[in-house]
C-alpha cells in the first residue's frame, strides 16, 4: 500500500463525480517539513507553533522564533503554511512556566485566552511571524476563539504590529491572511460578522468534539464513546459548513478525524472541501476520496441521519468497501 499511496502523490484528491478536496498536512517542528514533499500535501493547514515552545528548556525569544518561522517558509517552498499562534494550557505544558492549578484546564486559561491576557508574549510571537515572513505570504490562525470579540482583539493586535513594522520601514509579508479555529461550540452560533471577518476558518475537531459531547479527549474511558459520525454531531458540523457558505468564509477541517478515511468521507459528504491531517494519513484519505462518488456518500449519510441510525459509520464503511477502499 505504501507504493500505492506514493503513486497517488501527485494526483488530485478528486472523487469519481469530480469533486476536488484539498489535502494539507499538520506540522509542528521544522523536522516535519520534509513530509510536505513526501506526502504530496498541498501545504501545511495547521502549524502548531507551541511545539517549539514545549521542546525547549527556555522560552524562545523573538529572534529565535523569527528564524524558525523563516525556515519553515523556506522549506515550504511557496506552499501555504498556516501558523497557529500559541495554544498552551490544557494538555500543552511549558516546562519553564509556572503552572496554574485549574480543575478543568481544557476549559481553562489556555490558547487565545492566555494570549490576550499576556499581550507581550503574544505580540512577540506576532512580530516574529511578521518578520519571518517578510516578502512572502503569511497566514496566521488564532486557536480556541470563543467570541467574536476575542477574534477581533487578536486580529487588531496583529494588524497593529504589521502597521508598526511598516512605519519603521521593515519589510512586510507580501500578503496577510488572518483566520480562526472553530473549536468551541459557541462559535458555530457566532454572529455572521465572525464568518465574514475571518479570512479563513478551520474546525479543530479534537476540541470541538470533546466540548460537543462533554467527553474529555484525553480520557480513555470516554474518549471513543461518542461517534464523530453520529447524526447530532454531523448535523452540527453541517450547520458550520452552511454558515461559512452563506458568509463566503473559506473553511477547512483540521482535527484527527480528517486523517481517518471513513470520517474524511463523511466530512466531505456534508460539505467540507479542505482537510489538514497528519502527513502519513494523506495517501489513505486521498485513495478513499478518489474511489467514491461523493453524491452517493452524501445520500448514505442523509439516509442514516433521516433513518435515526445512531451513526452513519456502518453504511459508509460498507459503501467504501464496495468501492474498493
Ligand atoms: C483540534 O482541537 O482539533 C486541533 C487541531 O488542535 P489541537 O489538537 O492542537 O488542540
Ligand atoms: Mg484544539
From TrEMBL:
UniProt keyword terms in alphabetical order: Cytoplasm, Kinase, Magnesium, Metal-binding, Phosphotransferase system, Sugar transport, Transferase, Transport
Similarity section: Belongs to the PEP-utilizing enzyme family.
Gene Ontology biological-process annotations: phosphoenolpyruvate-dependent sugar phosphotransferase system
Taxonomic superkingdom: Bacteria
Cellular component, GO annotation: cytoplasm
Membrane-traversing stretches: none
Name this protein carries in UniProt: phosphoenolpyruvate--protein phosphotransferase
Species the sequence originates in: Rubrimonas cliftonensis
Gene Ontology MF term list: kinase activity; metal ion binding; phosphoenolpyruvate-protein phosphotransferase activity
Major location category of this protein: cytoplasm
Compartment(s) where it occurs, according to its Swiss-Prot or TrEMBL record: Cytoplasm
Amino acid at each position: 500500500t505504501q507504493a500505492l499511496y506514493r503513486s497517488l502523490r501527485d494526483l488530485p484528491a478528486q472523487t469519481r463525480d469530480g469533486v476536488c478536496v484539498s489535502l494539507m498536512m499538520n506540522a509542528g517542528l521544522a523536522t516535519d517539513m520534509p513530509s510536505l514533499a513526501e506526502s504530496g500535501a498541498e501545504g501545511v493547514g495547521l502549524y502548531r507553533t507551541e511545539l517549539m515552545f514545549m521542546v525547549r528548556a527556555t522560552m524562545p525569544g523573538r529572534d529565535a522564533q523569527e528564524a524558525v518561522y523563516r525556515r519553515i517558509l523556506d522549506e515550504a517552498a511557496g506552499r501555504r503554511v498556516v501558523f497557529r499562534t500559541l495554544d498552551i494550557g490544557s494538555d500543552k505544558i511549558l516546562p519553564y512556566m509556572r503552572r496554574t492549578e485549574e480543575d478543568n484546564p481544557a476549559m481553562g486559561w489556555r490558547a487565545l485566552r492566555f494570549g490576550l491576557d499576556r499581550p507581550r508574549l503574544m505580540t512577540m510571537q506576532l512580530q516574529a511571524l511578521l518578520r519571518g515572513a517578510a516578502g512572502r505570504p503569511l497566514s496566521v490562525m488564532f486557536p480556541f476563539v470563543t467570541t467574536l470579540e476575542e477574534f477581533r482583539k487578536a486580529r487588531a493586535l496583529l494588524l497593529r504590529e504589521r502597521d508598526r513594522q511598516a512605519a519603521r520601514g521593515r519589510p512586510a509579508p507580501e500578503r496577510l491572511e488572518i483566520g480562526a479555529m472553530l473549536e468551541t461550540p459557541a462559535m458555530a452560533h457566532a454572529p455572521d460578522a465572525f464568518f465574514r471577518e475571518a479570512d479563513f476558518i478551520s474546525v479543530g475537531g479534537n476540541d470541538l468534539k470533546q466540548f460537543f459531547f462533554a467527553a474529555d479527549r484525553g480520557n480513555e474511558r470516554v474518549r471513543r464513546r461518542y461517534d464523530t459520525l453520529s447524526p447530532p454531531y454531523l448535523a452540527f458540523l453541517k450547520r458550520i459548513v452552511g454558515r461559512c457558505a452563506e458568509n463566503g468564509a473559506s473553511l477547512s477541517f483540521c482535527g484527527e478525524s480528517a486523517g481517518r478515511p471513513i470520517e474524511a468521507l463523511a466530512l466531505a459528504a456534508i460539505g467540507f472541501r479542505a482537510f489538514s491531517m497528519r502527513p502519513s494519513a494523506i495517501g489513505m484519505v486521498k485513495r478513499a476520496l478518489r474511489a467514491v462518488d461523493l453524491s452517493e456518500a452524501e445520500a448514505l449519510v442523509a439516509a442514516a441521519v433521516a433513518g435515526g441510525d445512531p451513526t452513519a459509520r456502518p453504511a459508509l464503511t460498507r459503501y467504501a468497501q464496495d468501492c474498493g477502499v
